[in-house]
Backbone:
């Protein structure tokens, strides 16, 4: 039963958690298009989510900005000018702020407010949310837009607190920036964040030492400024580009494969790899259509990149260390870089493999590996994130019968479509585990989810439905389907964050639907058309004020 105090707390139709790209669009969509009373809570002091926190040098998107941007509002895409093919973080953050102003969503976003707990009330079919600021609020719908890569992961190195220099995490970078000029800097990790930041840190630092546990495949971003003519041409063709992207596998148009390994003349495959290496970004590794299903195909592409490392890196020993051998290319996140491998030709850059001999501890003056102590003024942790589930795990969601989400996911995240979880009625997750987002242009996935959830809420209100819950059967079937698709590929062979493998103790579940955004979209549309099978509905929650108007309107 609701307590009498909850009746006096602010009540909304929908509460949104987070004001990143998902939260901004959710507030606009639900408030301005559905006419709902909406409140968003955001941990940061500004909007932008991942792009608010990840301010490390070189941070930029890996999908072209023409696609890595909202498509739902033509005025926005016509007004905004991207300056580079892959926009840098400050520009993406400016864009998030511009959109927030344009859509006037700030007045419904409470910044500096972390949601700590959300409790389902069965009597009223509402959620009550409490925040670290003491704010409490209630709503019919609770929607998380907490992001996939929003909780930095910091390994617990012994002696970390004794280090006398500064320690930074790429995912939680100081807003005023960091000046590494003249400093001895250590970077731990060689994932995308390290690969973007290392070339720039190397330009400033007196000396840079990179600690590499797993060598990462990276291909040239071929980033460059966008010319005025290109910008005009894109703006003219946006309608068509966006329509094509919506029907694509990844929410972005990338170059198509030539065919499966062994069925295309090898000289043609080689020539195409060479051509794409010079400017295709992610498309570089999709020359062979079976690259992520056949180990022979994958070996071919992997070897092409390893050969490139040897062409670029002067010291053959260093090139050898940089060669990735631990996983098939693409099964851990492929990085896009600007001068990453070439950076190891600099005199002031040193690569230390910690694959066989891990980092033992931090000391007062640096990092100890085996018998060697490396001395630093600053250490950068580029050690990644507790992906997909991390942010949700940090909120105490108490669903039906008080069962927590953490408990429900103790053996691995389970969800229906990545959009809803059995036992957690009226709760929707944008880019939740089991949706395609991780392997797509995330903004395309966000837009799909926000639009689908909004349509569903509209349907519920029109039908007087006050409670929806995913059925356990639908959830099990979806989880099995996601796993079955993953098992048909090479993805599960890698210890990646896609599998939760980067977080000690995290259950290994493949966190993404691999059927492609286009097929996923069709499937979600069909579910909506068929009256939302996989969800059970009830209508006996006391209507909120706005619902009394909506029903039968
Ligand atoms: P990633 O891709 O998870 O990379 C983290 C890196 O940190 C990776 O090289 C890890 O090595 C390394 N790491 C983590 N813990 C340790 C310890 N204890 N010792 C040594 N090295 C360690 O995170 P990013 O921030 O680079 O990128 C995240 C996503 O952002 C990326 O995929 C894009 O989608 C954008 P490992 O591979 O685990 O051996």
Residues:
């Amino acid at each position: 039963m609701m307590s009498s105090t909850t009746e006096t707390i602010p009540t909304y139709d929908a509460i949104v958690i987070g004001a990143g790209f998902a939260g901004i669009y959710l507030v606009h969509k639900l408030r301005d298009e559905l006419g709902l009373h909406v409140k968003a809570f955001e941990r940061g002091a500004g909007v932008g989510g991942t792009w608010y926190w990840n301010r490390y040098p070189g941070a930029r998107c890996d999908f072209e900005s023409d696609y890595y941007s909202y498509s739902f509002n033509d005025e926005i895409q016509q007004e905004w000018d991207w300056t580079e093919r892959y926009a840098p973080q400050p520009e993406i953050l400016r864009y998030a702020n511009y959109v927030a102003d344009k859509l006037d969503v700030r007045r419904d976003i409470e910044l500096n407010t972390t949601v700590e707990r959300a409790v389902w009330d069965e009597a009223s079919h509402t959620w009550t949310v409490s925040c670290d600021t003491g704010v409490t609020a209630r709503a019919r719908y609770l929607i998380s837009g907490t992001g996939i890569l929003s909780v930095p992961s910091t390994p617990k190195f012994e002696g970390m607190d004794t280090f006398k220099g500064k320690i930074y995490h790429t995912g939680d970078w100081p807003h005023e920036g960091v000046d590494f000029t003249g400093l001895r800097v250590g970077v731990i990790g060689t994932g995308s964040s390290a690969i973007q930041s290392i070339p720039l840190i190397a330009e400033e630092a007196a000396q840079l030492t990179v600690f590499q546990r797993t060598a990462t495949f990276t291909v040239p971003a071929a980033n460059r400024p966008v010319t005025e003519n290109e910008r005009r041409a894109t703006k003219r063709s946006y309608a068509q580009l966006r329509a094509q992207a919506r029907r694509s596998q990844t929410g972005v148009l990338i170059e198509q494969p030539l065919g499966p390994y062994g069925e295309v003349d090898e000289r043609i495959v080689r020539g195409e790899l060479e051509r794409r290496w010079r400017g295709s970004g992610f498309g570089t590794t999709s020359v062979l259509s079976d690259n992520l299903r056949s180990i022979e195909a994958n070996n071919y592409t992997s070897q092409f990149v390893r050969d490139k490392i040897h062409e670029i890196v002067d010291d053959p020993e260093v090139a050898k260390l940089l060669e990735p051998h631990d996983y098939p290319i693409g099964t851990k996140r492929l990085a896009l870089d600007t001068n990453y491998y070439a950076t190891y030709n600099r005199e002031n850059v040193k690569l230390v493999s910690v694959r066989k001999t891990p980092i033992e501890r931090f000391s007062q003056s640096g990092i100890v590996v085996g018998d060697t102590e490396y001395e630093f003024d600053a250490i950068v942790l580029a050690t990644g994130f507790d992906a997909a589930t991390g942010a949700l795990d940090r909120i105490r969601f108490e669903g039906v019968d008080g069962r927590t989400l953490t408990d429900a996911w103790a053996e691995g995240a389970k969800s229906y479509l990545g959009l809803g979880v059995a036992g957690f009625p009226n709760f929707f997750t944008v880019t939740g585990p089991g949706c395609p987002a991780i392997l797509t242009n995330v903004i395309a996935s966000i837009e799909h989810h926000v639009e689908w959830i909004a349509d569903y809420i509209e349907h519920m209100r029109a039908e007087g439905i006050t409670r929806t819950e995913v059925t356990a059967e639908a959830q099990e079937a979806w989880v099995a389907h996601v796993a079955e698709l993953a098992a048909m590929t090479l993805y599960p062979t890698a210890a990646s964050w896609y599998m939760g493998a980067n977080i000690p103790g995290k259950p290994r579940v493949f966190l993404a639907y691999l059927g492609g955004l286009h097929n996923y979209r069709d499937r979600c549309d069909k579910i909506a058309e068929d009256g939302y099978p996989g969800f059970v509905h009830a209508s006996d929650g006391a209507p909120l004020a706005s619902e009394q108007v909506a029903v039968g309107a």
User: Anything to note?
Assistant: The pocket of NA7 is lined by residues 149, 155, 170, 188-194, 211, 213-214, 333, 354, 359, 382-385, 497, 502 (CB under 6 Å). The first helix runs from residue 4 to 8. The chain has three domains: 9-150+387-539, 152-216+334-384, 254-331.
